[in-house]
Amino acid sequence: xxxxxxxxxLCVLIAGTTVVFTRGLASQPVVVSVFGLMLALMxxxxxxxxxxxxxxxxGAVGLPLIVLLALAKLRRDAQLLHRQQDEDETK
Amino acid sequence: xxxxxRVTVFLAGAAGIAVLFALVCRTLPGPLPxxxxxxxxxxxxxxxxxNVTDAVSAVNFDYRGFDTIGEEFILFVSVLGxxxxxxxxxxxxxxxxxxxxxxxxxxxxxxxxxxxxxxMIAPKVLxxxxxxxxxxxxxxxxxxxxxxxxxxxxILYVGESFAVFRKVxxxxxxxxxxxxxxxxxxxxxxxxxxxxxxxxxxxxxxxxTHELTSGGTMPLISLATGLEVMAGFVLLLxxxxxxxxxxxxxx
Amino acid sequence: xxxxxxxYAGFAVAAWLFVIGLYGIIxxxxxxxxxxxxxxxxxxxxxxxxVIGYRPGLPAPIFVxxxxxxxxxxxxxxxxxxxxxxxxxxxxxxxxxxxVRVHRRTxxxxxxxxxxxxx
Lengths: 91, 251, 119
Prior knowledge:
The structure holds three protein chains of three kinds. Chain A has three helices and no strands.
């Protein structure tokens, strides 16, 4: 039985390290989502079903969506800024 | 500070943390797990004192309800901060908003995803309401059910476009819901004042166990919290989706 | 002794996540990556709390199906974690909105290049 707990702790460790060392912007929501899922599994294994419910919805669905939207906004702002600069230069 | 210096200072700090952590682990009082008498007292009394079966919700909404008010208002203020930060700021932007209202989609939305999303919204809403109302009986409660309800609105955006989302979800109503949830929690706490008891005492009739009305004020607080959390997350999504633009030269 | 290993492993994982999250914060080149490393630091506290509240062999503190006075896992710690998980997500959303504003102001999302608080 302890192998289940040790195994899930190892998965959380690997997922956390992966989140930090992933530098590519487009893959960050995915990695965060997987990390959230590993945390939720850890909560289930450590007998905390309420917390697991929250963590599944927030960490695997809500947070990656907000990260994705923030990245989309950053890219769109950069595009609009380029367009603005081009317009100013041609004037 | 250059990168190499920063990493060196960090490694020194990390070594210090590791040493202190190891020292603390050696001086723990007795073998693990350490007994928590408060938790054992609550576990043995939840069923008898409050007629509920979910000890975690009882702790959240009854025994330590005051701390939950604090947490809920942290959520409220964070959402308020995000909305204020993502507003339109410059006067010139109102003219440009009409063009930028629709976030550009490089990949057209697929029919399969739209169909699946439309089919799944009703079960999600039902499931969210189920989790919120059964908070004191099975794992669940206001926080979990609230985010599940908010995710129903989220997947509406994912499956359809922002225009559909904006038509279905009205900003005014969701703002009202958030305020109602946050204020509702405080009002339920004030009910106890009519009986001369301190704030947030559980004064409503406790009901029979395994029923939806067991636990006195707990189902009401759960509903208020669920409303507030759901509205908070939907407002966050709305704020992130609204296409805004500031003109850099003016600032 | 076998069960003690779970606790020490949990403490070690929490400490490791904390330190690696801090490393991510100081060495990140994009503000969004910085916010997500902060999420890893938060996760360290979740792991620590989950391990502290755990009692090996006992069920969850939901008294359905077994008598209500039998021992169970610590519910107070779970109540702490529960609100924590939802609230920290909104705090990260607030940080991401600050990131969007900083990017609009300086057109760069690199923490090394953003020097808005010039003296």
